[in-house]
Amino acid sequence: MPVLRYCEYICYGRDARAAVLLFVWRSCCFRALDSFVLDGSFCFRLV
């Protein structure tokens, strides 16, 4: 699965149930997109 799609799933999907977690994932994905750092482990390290 492309990392971009994976980030979108985590940000908006059912895996991010808590509002705080959802915010963390969204900010992580947006930063990853903005800096072209499309690395899934980048998100995991921030959570």
Question: How does the SSE layout of this entry go?
Answer:
Layout: H1 3-12, H2 19-35, H3 40-46
* Portion in beta strands: under 5%
Tell me, briefly, the overall form. Answer: globular
Helix/strand structural class? mainly alpha
What does the average pLDDT come to?
55
In angstroms, what separates the terminal alpha carbons?
20 Å
Report the total helices: 3
User: What percentage of residues falls in helices of 4 or more residues?
Assistant: over 70%
What order do the SSEs take from the amino end to the carboxyl end, as H and E?
A: HHH
Unreliable stretches covering 5 or more consecutive residues: none
Overall structural domain count: 1
Number of strands: 0
Largest sheet: none
Q: State Rg.
A: 9 Å
Provide a brief overview of the structure.
With 47 residues, the protein is mostly helical. It has helices at 3-12, 19-35, 40-46.
Structure description:
The protein has one domain. It has 47 residues and is mainly alpha-helical. Helix content is 72%, strand content 0%. The radius of gyration is 9 Å and the shape is globular.
Please name the defining characteristics of this protein.
47 residues, mainly alpha
